[in-house]
């Protein structure tokens, strides 16, 4: 039996020590990385509870329950950060992307321990795909909130819309993964391609747009 809590402690302990040694400048990075890992751990409990409550099978739990639970759980600490600290747009983006990276990292660690490490090629592709998926969902929330949060008329509706978009992307990925066969490969490529397109857009077109709207 795998004790996921023990794994969390072993992975989080070095990060906590490093955060204490590196000082305030890098503290936010480690805080959100640890929050992402903690949210992943809590999401596992909530997913299991909800699946048992509705007596659903593994396929429906993966496709219908997990995307909603995980994206809502990732949003909660970010909402606390926004309300309490009132960060700047760039700080919002960095926070949510770091949180998403922490979530994806711990999820991959748990998958590696439960599924074994015999097939390196598959684990690499799976790790990149799942990691990119969480980063894309984080980017949807982070970049979107950086725009809507300072607009009172758009704050509530915009946040819910962004949450819905991230759940839809997450659910699509899980559906393709659960289907298996050659469709599974599309699931791995989709978030990686989305990240690459997003990075290219941010590097090539965003500077031009900012200059035009100044």
Report on the architecture of this protein.
With 214 residues, the protein is an all-alpha fold. The chain has one domain. It is 88% helix and 0% strand. It contains 8 helices and no strands. Helix 6 (152-179) packs antiparallel against helix 7 (183-204). It is globular and about 45 Å long. It starts with a helix and ends with a helix. The model has no long low-confidence stretch (mean pLDDT 84).
Spell out the key features of this protein:
88% helix, 214 residues, single chain, mainly alpha
* Percent in strands: under 5%
Order of helices and strands: HHHHHHHH
Report how far apart the termini are: 58 Å
Overall 3D geometry?
A: globular
The share of residues in helices is over 70%
Number of domains: 1
**Radius of gyration, whole Å:** 18 Å
What is the number of helical segments per DSSP (H or I, 4+ residues)? 8
Sheet with most strands: none
Indicate the mean pLDDT. 84
**Count of DSSP strands:** 0
Query: Pairing-aware structural class of the strands and helices?
Result: mainly alpha
In terms of per-residue confidence, which ranges show pLDDT below 50 for 5 or more consecutive residues? none
Quick overview of this protein structure:
The protein is mainly α and 214 residues long.
Tell me the layout of helices and strands.
Blueprint: H1 4-22, H2 27-54, H3 58-85, H4 89-115, H5 120-148, H6 152-179, H7 183-204, H8 206-212
Helix pairs in contact: 1-2, 2-3, 2-4, 3-4, 3-6, 4-5, 5-6, 5-7, 6-7
């Amino acid at each position: 039996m795998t004790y996921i809590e023990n794994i969390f402690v072993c992975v989080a302990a070095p990060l906590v020590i490093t955060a204490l040694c590196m000082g305030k400048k890098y503290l936010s990075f480690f805080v959100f990385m640890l929050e992402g890992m903690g949210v992943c751990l809590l999401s596992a409990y909530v997913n299991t509870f909800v699946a048992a409550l509705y007596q659903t099978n593994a396929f429906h739990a993966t496709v219908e329950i997990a995307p909603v639970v995980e994206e809502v759980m990732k949003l909660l600490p970010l909402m606390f950060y926004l309300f309490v600290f009132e960060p700047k747009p760039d700080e919002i983006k960095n926070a949510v992307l770091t949180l998403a990276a922490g979530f994806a990292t711990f999820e991959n660690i748990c998958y590696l321990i439960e599924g074994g490490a015999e097939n390196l090629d598959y684990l690499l592709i799976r790790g990149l795909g799942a990691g990119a998926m969480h980063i894309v969902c984080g980017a949807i929330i982070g970049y979107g909130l950086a725009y809507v949060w300072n607009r009172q008329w758009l704050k509530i509706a915009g946040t819910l819309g962004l949450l819905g978009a991230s759940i839809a992307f997450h659910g699509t990925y899980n559906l393709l993964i659960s289907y298996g066969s050659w469709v599974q490969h599309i699931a791995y490529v989709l978030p990686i391609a989305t990240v690459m397109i997003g990075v290219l857009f941010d590097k090539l077109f965003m500077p031009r747009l900012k200059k035009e709207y100044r």
